[in-house]
Amino acid sequence: MVKKLLQDKREGLLLLAGFLLIVAPMSLFVSHIDLLSEVCDVVGFSFTALTDSAGSKGFLITLSVLVFISWRVIGFNREFLAKLFQLGVILVIGFAAKTGLKHVTESPRPYTELLTHQLLIPNPEHFYKLDAIQKEEMIDEISQQVSPWRTSHWQGEKDYSFPSGHTIFASICLAFFGGLFMQHKRYGLALMVGVWAVCVGYSRLWLGMHRPMDLVGSIVFVAAVYALMPSFSQLGMWMMQKLKYPAHIHR
Predict the structure, then answer these.
(1) Which of 65, 116, 130, 237 could pair with 134 as two cysteines, CB 3.0-4.6 Å apart?
(2) 95-121 tens-digit pLDDT
(3) Domain residue extents for the chain
């Protein structure tokens, strides 16, 4: 049964493995990211758009686009409904676990290290002892040296670093939609989702919001949850019957 469970998800798991292999060595590039460097508007806008596409401001738009494309690829059938239910369950698990793990690990965000280096706080952990107003004032002070393309995100996310919620969402989309596209031989679409996921991950590093380990942990977590997720095929059949659709209809 476990073998069958994994076999049905081999494409999605393969894509996550590829994502992991690309993200893992990103630590080699992080050392070249200077958070104090000047940022042109094109670069700043591009990384902001990427990170927002997997964050609270834009994840629903991304999700809607991917669901629509999936519907066009496989049609409205029990597979489509089962996949949607799978997606909903893992999104709830992913976002709930993200919040819980952040409080358990209490890993400071990378930008707090810059605050420490600039002698604004004694150590990264001290940032989380400040109240909301003090944190905002601290980031305002460093904003004289750091591009607003970065500090605007710092102001919006003052919680802990591990794991990366944006990478969790990108990994879920890659496993579900990328895997689905591969199963239906739409390799170009799968590649596009993969490139987007990698770019989202790198945007989090570039902004000073995460370390490579945060991304790695997020991908591994999603892979584990996705691998153990039931197919819900019977539920898909039941929903089709309730909606008065014959199970064989594809479009």
Answers:
(1) 130
(2) 899 999 999 999 999 999 999 999 889
(3) 1-24+46-107+162-251, 109-159
